[in-house]
Structure formats: C-alpha cells, structure tokens
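Co-fold these.
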Amino acid sequence: MRIELTVNGARRSDEVEPRLLLVHYLRERCGLRAANVGCDTTSCGACTVLVNGRSVKSCTMLAVQAAGQEITTAEGLAAGGEMHPVQEAFRQQHGLQCGFCTPGMVMAATGLLAENPHPTETEVREGLEGNFCRCTGYHNIVRAVLAAAETMSA
Amino acid sequence: MIPAPFEYQAAESARHALDLLARHGDDAKVLAGGHSLLPMMKLRLAVPSVVIDIGRVAELAGIRADGDDLVIGATTCHADVAASGLVRSQTPLLAYAAAQVGDPQIRHRGTIGGSLAHADPAADLPMALVALGGFMEIAGPGGQRTVSADDFFAGFFETSLEPDELLTAVRVPRRPGPDWGYQKFVRRANDWAIVGVAAAGGRIALANMGPVPLRATAAEEALAGGASAADAAALAAEGTEPAEDIHADRAYRQHLARVLTRRALEHQTG
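Predicted complex below.
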C-alpha cells in the first residue's frame, strides 16, 4: 500500500508491503543506514529514531504505522554541515567505542533532552535504559548527554 | 525477523474498527502501538490474516475526568499516562505503573489498552488495574459493556473480549493520596516482573503468581480485620500456584509475594 510521510524533513511517498518494518523501510528504501538492527526484539535500542519528536524503536513499528508522521534519523540531525549538539558532545566526550549503538544512543538522548532539557545524571541513565552499549561505554555516553544539555541550554 | 504477510486496514473511527472486526473477526488482530502484537508477529507466534490499525483513531486516545473516575482512552500511550497531571494526582499508582513498563521508547508507543488486552500476567498494567478496582469499557456489535478488571482477565494471555469486540477505554476510580504501594521484582532493567505486587486502599494485586493477575484475598481480609501489614502480608501467597521457570520456583515466588506485599502495604515503591 502507499504511504506518505516526512523523513528528515522531506516529504516521501512510497509503495510498501504492510509487513515492512520501519527500520527496514528507512535502511533499504530511504537509504538511511544510521538506525541499526541490533537485537530485533525491542530491547537494545540501536534502531531508535524519532517519530514526531519522540524516541521509538523502529524494529517494532511498521512502515505503514508511520504514514502521516514525521520521522527523524541520525542523518537528519545535522543541519547545514554542522553537527547537532548531541552529536558534537558524543565526539567531544568520546561517547562511543565500536559505534554500533551510537545512532540509537544519539536519537534516544535527543528525544530525552527534548522532554527534559536539564536532566540529572540519574535521569540520563534512566532515560537511556532502553539502549544497550555492548562495549559498556556508558560512562562517557552519560557525560556526553550531560554536556549536550549544557550546550543546548547555553 | 519479518512478520508473515497480512492485509492491513487502518480504522478511521471506533465504529469503523468494529465494522472491520465484524467482517474479519477471528482472523483479525487489532493493532494500536504494536508493542505486544508486533513482537509476537515477528516471532510468528501470532499470524493474523488481517491487521486493523486503531493507532490513529483520535477518539480512542486521551485522558479525562468523569465524576469519581478517570477515563483513559485505550490507545493512550504509557508515557502519556505516566506524565498526566490528572493521573499523577488522582491515581498515582497508575502513573507509577505506567512508568515501569519497558523503557522510554516502549512507553512512547505501547498503549494502556494494548497492554491490558494482551493480558500478560507478568505485566504492569493488568496488575495495576486489578489493584485499583478499574473497569474496561468494551464496544461490540450489540453496543457498550463494562467489565471489572477482576472479571476481564480470563486466563493466560486471555481476556473476556470477544473476537468482534474492541476495548475502547479504561475507567479507574480516583484514589488520590499516599495509601498505595508498588513492588516489581526483576532481574534486569526493562524486564517483566518475576513477581509484582500493587496495593491500594485495602486491595492487593499480584503479578506473575498465576495465569492472571490475582487478588491476595486472604491478606486483604486480614487487613480489613485490623491485621498489621506484616501479618497480612504473611498470607499474600495463600491459594496461589505460580508457575516455575528459569527465574524462580514456586516456593521462591510465594516467598517473594509475601515480602513484596509487606513492602507494598508499607507504601514502598521499587
């Protein structure tokens, strides 16, 4: 069936099979490969994208459910060649090791800061409980989110 | 993992969803946030031939006060229940329970109605609704009916919903104030309860102590008769036959039920 939606600010219209998962739609049809398929069971958060500004695991959403919605992936965060403050903070604070979880972490963090612009460290840790880093690099990830919060409120 | 092929129908209204259910009945599954149904479809534990999407039906979402009750639309997501000022002030146990479901991303998509209709006995919302003495508002071809949470859960992942019926809203009596407690014993973050206990106003509900969320009736009766929290909690596992699994055997689950009930009756959360 045909769906119309907005992906990273651009209107799209695509013919999709109803069973196509949003993460596969984004990766294979839109060519946006930031969202990774990690666990494929709504646990790891590597596929996190924003739907109407809220973080969502795109392995557990059908592309047809995204009809009429606004989707943002990590590719859509940077504007005019400038990295988004959350992306920049992950780089500055070395908030990544292998990088597989990073797009999901960045999107979950962006969603978290939209809901709570001044989180405490505990709120950051709880806010990212849906994202796993198998390198266990949580320390710098949390530091990056706190740094981004400071930059964004400055 | 990819679901088996299905025909997709987006409902435009509750009435339209009921018409689609009347046409497809047992072959159809209702999709709201999809956070119970889609994982089952990906594992091919559920293979509906028709999926009826109620996720964009505006009349099925939202929270409002109605006299002594709050009425919460079936497709209201957990994050909205947890953040609602009305829910937090009038039924704080429900706001707390909604905030315990999964993780933030799951709470942005998963819905209160979906969680209740899925009827996982280890889940948060079924236990919370039983503890609060809530009701399900159900629409069907013959009109509306209301079923208490005590009667709604019929068995393991089974409810009293007929194939042509739709859970449209949840009705919860206002229970403001601090007389509630909530305990969820888990091994990992984001997990289902190995055992859970919710207590409010003399009612005690147990999660994962049987095929449905159970009332701890012996403990409730002891409380009503003036027993202390500790004495009442000692009776919390009376009559239960919890399943055994990799996490816990029967005796351990019953031990947890007693300990967690005492904590819940002492208004602890955790």
